[in-house]
Amino acid sequence: xxxxxxxxxxxxxxxxxxxxxxxxxxxxxxxxxxxxxxxxxxxxxxxxxxxxxxxxxxxxxxxxxxxxxxxxxxxxxxxxxxxxxxxxxxxxxxxxxxxxxxxxxxxxxxxxxxxxxxxxxxxxxxxxxxxxxxxxxxxxxxxxxxxxxxxxxxxxxxxxxxxxxxxxxxxxxxxxxxxxxxxxxxxxxxxxxxxxxxxxxxxxxxxxxxxxxxxxxxxxxxxxxxxxxxxxxxxxxxxxxxxxxxxxxxxxxxxxxxxxxxxxxxxxxxxxxxxxxxxxxxxxxxxxxxxxxxxxxxxxxxxxxxxxxxxxxxxxxxxxxxxxxxxxxxxxxxxxxxxxxx
Length: 342
Known about the structure:
InterPro entries: His_Pase_superF_clade-1, His_PPase_superfam, PGM_Phosphatase
Helix content: 25-40%
CATH superfamily of the largest domain: Phosphoglycerate mutase-like
Number of strands: 14
Keywords: Signal
Number of domains: 2
CATH architecture of the largest domain: 3-Layer(aba) Sandwich
CATH class of the largest domain: Alpha Beta
Largest sheet: 7 strands, mixed
Low-confidence stretches: 7-16
Structural class: alpha/beta
GO molecular function: phosphatase activity
Protein name: Phosphomutase-like protein 3
């Protein structure tokens, strides 16, 4: 009886763990075909003219080698956006940028809220398209996934509308590290549908940006969870497809590389990295104990403002806000960092 009860407890515990959204498969990546996947090859020696494909292999060799648990991912970073250059172009010091200007939508005609591509960014995509066209037997993706931010949607259009393609699916979890700064906030679905017609949306995609917060910043824990969840979704959605395109951002792409046990590799704006990724049978919990940080970590110079209020004589509500002295001539800034009740 005791043994049976113990077995049932273990089963229920396992079922409870498996039901958690952060209980996901583990992933690995192959080091066989691409120089950037080999930690023994310095980054500066990678032959980017061939997208890192090792001598002695063809793209057909890569695709034909894939087993049922593997896919060739074309991980593409958006072209240069206005958020990449605004601080430098506007001569804003790092503290003022971090603590004030990054929370605004723009300045002096430069908008970095949900940033669009710069002229250089458009040129980077043109160069990439020419390189793909001139690469013998480059494997055109079977499925396309893209972040909902404007710079990635522009990048997808300017890359794949000029090449063999199918409609891309907009995935919320394909977006950049989000929270506090406005470059990580997306427009609503209605705007995207009007501005970028022709894209599909994943099931359940909300009209409003329900992830972005002006007071919390996503941590590495959460973006690693997002990367694993995104890969898991893609492996199930594109079950019979071999070549997958993901157009995303530096932070999310770095998280994918970490999750699939690939070495850290810098993907420049307008660049792409091919990676053979395998989904494994074993699962693990991706920690979410410290999924978000607050404005005090984003801006260490922020000053706390603590307000305590007694409600109904029994509940004490303490509100902690963060404030930062704005640059001269700018509007004052006050951000509610967190609230506690007792």
